[in-house]
Amino acid sequence: MLRPLIAAALLTALPLLALAQDTEPAWDPAQVDLSALISCEGQPEQFLALAIAIQDPLKAVSLGWRPLPQTNMFMTEYALNAPVTVFGHSSQHIAFAGSSVMAILDLPDPRPLAKQLGLEAAVDTPEKAMFGKEVLSEETLDKASGMVLIRSAVLSVSNVTSHPGKTLAGCTYSIDPAEEDPEEPAAEPVTATE
User: Fold this and answer.
1) What H or E segment, with its residue span, contains residue 51?
2) Which of 32, 96, 167, 175 has its CA at a distance of 20 to 30 angstroms from the CA of residue 78?
3) Confidence at residue 6, expressed as pLDDT on a 0 to 100 scale
4) What's the first-to-final CA gap in the chain, in angstroms?
5) Taking 90 as the threshold, does the pLDDT of residue 11 lie above it?
6) CB of 78 within 8 A of CB of 94?
C-alpha cells in the first residue's frame, strides 16, 4: 500500500529512527552510498546518519555538498561536488524532505521513470504527478526497549511546482512502532481533568 508522502508527517519518523540508531552500530555519513540510499537500496539507519550530518552545515560541506537557497519550504537542497547516478540518470542536485532523500533530475515528466520503475500512481493530473511503491517492510525487535518496530522504505517519483521541468526521485525511510494486536484489550483513554 502506498503511504502518503507528506513532508510534515514524515518528520515524526526521525525520533524512532534515532531509537534504532541507539541499538545498532553508528553509520559514518562519509561511508553511506548516496546513490544507493536515493534508490531505496539503503537502510533507514543509513538515512539517519545523513539526516544528522546535515543538521550541521560544516558536516554537509565535508561530505562534498554545497547548501542551496531554499526554493521549497519542505525541502533542504544541496549541490554535489561529484554527481550521483540513480535509475540511469546523473544529477548533482539532491534534496531532503522529512525522512526522504531525493535526486532532482533533469526530466520534465516523471511518468516515464515511474513506469520504468513499476510505481503506483498516487496523484496523476496534468499539473501534479506522484508515484510510489513500498520496497521494504520488515518487523524488528528493538533489544533496548523491547518494542516491535516496522522498518520501511518507499520509492517515489514526482514533480513539484517549485522545480519546473524537474523530476524528484528518491526514497522515504521510516521506523515505526508496530500496530497493537487487535486481540489485546485497548487501554483506557486518558482524559484531562481540571
Assistant:
1) helix 44-53
2) 175
3) 29
4) 42
5) no
6) yes
